[in-house]
Amino acid sequence: MSRLVPVPGGDLDGLHRSVVVVGGGQAGLSMSHCLTQRGVDHLVLEKGELANEWRDRRWDSFCLVTPNWQCALPGFPYDGVDPGGFMLRDEIVDYLRRYAESFRPPLVEGVEVTRLRVDGEGRFTVRTPAGTLTADQVVVATGPYQVPLTPRVAERFPDGVAQVHSSAYKNPDQLPGGAVLVVGTGQSGCQIAEDLHLAGRRVHLATGSAPRVARRYRGRDVVDWLEDMGYYRRSIDEFDDADAVRMRANHYVTGRDGGRDIDLRAFAAQGMVLHGRLAGVRDGVVEFGADLRRNLDAADAVSESIKDSCDSWIAKNGIDAPEEARYVPVWEPEHDGPTTVDLAAEGITSVVWCTGFGRDNRWIDLPVFDGRGYPAHHRGETSFPGLYFLGLPWQWTWGSGRFCGVAQDAEHLAEQITRKRLRGNDFEVPWLSGTPVTTYPGADEWIAPRTVA
């Protein structure tokens, strides 16, 4: 078990800290930096190594899809020579390593938290293989991408077809020779399909409803326009359908080779085989839905609507930006009906499942989740006093969970944590006492007093 900061006594058993941060990625490190700046004693627990998710669960050619200048962790803005470029996987890991070295967080690596509870005295108990420690407050910064999700239909593929989830995909040579079926057209699915396509592999791609965005428009990266228009700073409270917004798929685009559009129609014109949504598998034959045209048109429509917003912004502010012709589809499906593919006849020997991730919060033995297992919170603060989440998509803004927005969220939580330390524990834990929550300054806006029946 390696440690960036030694732990007294050689293990964690019996140790107490004001704050325990669970997770040592960009969110956990950002939280640690903000707590360090405020002089709050704390400990960061990481089940793997520093930046483990970036190092071990990204493919070899992976790069950011947002420009480097958006990497603005607390106290550590991007300091490289290519602010408009896109860091590769190993460069991201190095950025996080240098960030940790800049303030030496009390980070313990190789320790997984297996249970989080509250004891009879109202303190959090944090169980790990290295012992059980206690804390006054806990920040869960484990991120949204924890458990790879593979649909049950995967069980129906023939035994001879290799299957891998996007979290375990590394490069085309990892897969057996032959054609590859990629399932899913979110960011990972489109980029992995491109990776295989550029390597000369025959690719079949099962599309979904994810939107796309142009890489550049009217002389600038679209992210630059969106930043100027304030999109990354829009709060979740501005939307009537906040839950639906949080569950939206990200727009697909790439930063590969300096950044470019991902145009599935262009891939099809070059030989990639596009299908609708995967519908089933029977006796080695894969069935696809009749929604390919709809999926492509919807993705293009989102991209064009973003350009409309850019045009309006440019006109409103009198910005001198070059005119640019709008996108014209370079390929159309031959028909709108369902399709089938015989795996053996097409020489498909492997499947890459780009079907996303789920959360696994079973180790948190506290009632802070909604019916879907999502943590109920406001700006990362839960209704359970002293328990917070950090690094969630749309935690507060579109930038939350990204390198560009996690600093604001971490600063906010650090302020709440500090205020609670200064006040002391002036409220009871309702699930222990059976009494209503005693609200505190700023909490009455969103915490309704609750009583356990």
Helix/sheet category:
alpha/beta
Largest sheet: 7 strands, mixed
Per CATH, the class of the largest domain reads Alpha Beta
Radius of gyration: 24 Å
User: What does the overall shape look like?
Assistant: globular
| CATH fold-level topology of the largest domain | FAD/NAD(P)-binding domain
Query: How far do the termini sit from each other?
Result: 44 Å
What's the CATH H-level superfamily name of the largest domain?
FAD/NAD(P)-binding domain
Return residue spans where pLDDT drops below 50 for at least 5 consecutive residues. 425-453
Number of strands: 21
Count of discrete structural domains: 2
Q: What is the residue-averaged pLDDT?
A: 89
Number of helices: 11
Residue share in helix = 10-25%
Architecture of the largest domain, CATH level 2? Answer: 3-Layer(bba) Sandwich
- Strand content is 15-25%
